[in-house]
Amino acid sequence: QVQLVESGGGLVQPGGSLRLSCEASVNIFNRGWYRQAPGKQRELVASITSIGITIYADSVKGRFTISRDNAKNTVYLQMNSLKPEDTAVYYCNSVPASRSWGQGTQVTVSS
């Protein structure tokens, strides 16, 4: 079973930035960052293939950047110009998602 460990969340003011990290116990070809806000379904916000092709949800395009370090089995999410509606628990997983979810990392955007 794949182990996923997310980190880097926190409380930030609107307009601020955060960088999330997710280390996997094995190499995963297609990886993504998902988020789940209170009362909403989990959604995929960014994905990256093993060769670096990226796709973003419209809601984060131009503000978030996904990247990966294959040598470290780690994927990152640089989040800039954060908005209150970005508040959620952020998870990483493969794309499509497996049943192996990590604990997630809370991101709260509030003044």
Count of separate DSSP helical elements = 0
Task: Give the strand line-up of the largest sheet.
Answer: 2-10-9-4-5-6
Structural class: mainly beta
Question: What value does the average pLDDT take?
Answer: 96
Distance between the termini: 39 Å
The topology string of helices and strands comes to: EEEEEEEEEE
Characterise this structure.
- It is built from no helices and 10 strands.
- It is mainly β.
- A 6-stranded mixed beta sheet has the order 2-10-9-4-5-6, with no helix packed on it. A 4-stranded antiparallel beta sheet has the order 1-3-8-7, with no helix packed on it.
- A hairpin with a 4-residue loop joins strand 7 and strand 8.
- It starts with a strand and ends with a strand.
- The mean pLDDT is 96.
Which terms summarize this structure?
111 residues; mainly beta; six-stranded mixed beta sheet; four-stranded antiparallel beta sheet; 10 strands; 0% helix; 48% strand
